[in-house]
Amino acid sequence: MRIRSLSIDGAWEVTPRQHGDPRGVFLEWYRFDLLAHGVGHPLRFGQANLSVSARGVIRGIHFTDVPPGQAKYVTCVRGAVLDVVVDVRVGSPTFGRWEAVRLDDTERRAVYLAEGLGHGFCALTDDATVTYLCSTTHDPQAERQLHPLDPMLGIEWPDGPRLLSARDENAPDLGQLRNEGVLPTYQACVEYVESLRSVHPERPGETGRQGSVPVAGPPARTSASWLTPDRRA
């Protein structure tokens, strides 16, 4: 399993090692010990979700109040999605930045995002099936929405028809949310994550009893780097 930090602090891309033979493929899509070493603290999940989306469906951008926030570990088990992480933490050096990772049933990557980050995705295929682990159970009073087509964000969603829920279609933009004072602060998010590390002081790159996890930093990439050369044509 390889863990690569994204350009937004608190977000990682996870690439599993796949073992294939004539019967099919086996992989570990989540490892408690390795991911804990990668992100710096053990993870505790309170809920698992699954969604099935038609091509062109956009879900998000969603985030929750901090504390406690809601960390997520996301993967696509069927089809493909463009998974997007947005930094909505006021005071963050990358506030307003987004990064996209293609999740599909070929490479079988996953994305982990810490508490306070915004998350959404666009289905690139029909029946795109996304499953994700959440650090807390769903709390509708703490969940917030950010319009995924906010021009201030400028997320480069795939071309073609798009389908949003009524809630996401009517969500405010980043400027409105900031003016309303409902965005999480970078300081609050850092303090919350540090509280997790103080209880279980893991550090990236350390070796556990079950093996080591290579941790790499983000390479230079464009915001549309999820497009492979054949898909750019």
Automatic annotation (TrEMBL):
Signal peptide: none annotated. InterPro entries: RmlC-like, RmlC-like_jellyroll, RmlC_Cupin_sf. GO terms for cellular component: cytosol. GO terms for molecular function: dTDP-4-dehydrorhamnose 3,5-epimerase activity. The active site is at H62, Y132. Residues 199-233 are annotated as: Disordered. Pfam families: dTDP_sugar_isom (PF00908). GO terms for biological process: dTDP-rhamnose biosynthetic process; polysaccharide biosynthetic process. Belongs to the dTDP-4-dehydrorhamnose 3,5-epimerase family. This is dTDP-4-keto, 6-deoxyglucose-3-epimerase. The gene is mydH.
